[in-house]
Design goal:
Layout (H helix, E strand, L loop, with lengths): L1 H23 L10 E2 L12 H5 L7 E3 L9 E3 L17 H15 L3 H11 L1
Antiparallel strand pairs: 1-2, 2-3
Length: 122
Amino acid sequence: MLRMRAHLLQLEVAAHHKSLWDARTPAVQFDIGDLVQWYDSSRDGNYKTINKLAPQWSTPHIISGKIRKYWPLRGSDLHAGLPPANAPTQDSPEDLADTEERMQGDIFPSATEWELLDRGAD
């Protein structure tokens, strides 16, 4: 009985602390079109070097809607003027010919590779 009462008192104290926190801290209001980032706090308690060097903030996102307490996000258009990293470049005809030769070399083995294959078959 004593443990149950202590547990109930602990819940009351936790509720009181929450109400004090809520009274001091203003609610954050988001609007559609706001630019937001989020912080990845999962690495805070870990002291590995890779976690120190890894980015902890997300890339910027734009709020695209609101459904109750859920705000759908979409990638930002901040880098719209820059081509994506995997965008094809305008190559000269010589560069295209070199690329075709390399592709042919990858597809069809050279004579020395054929000789090695023939030796392995014996």
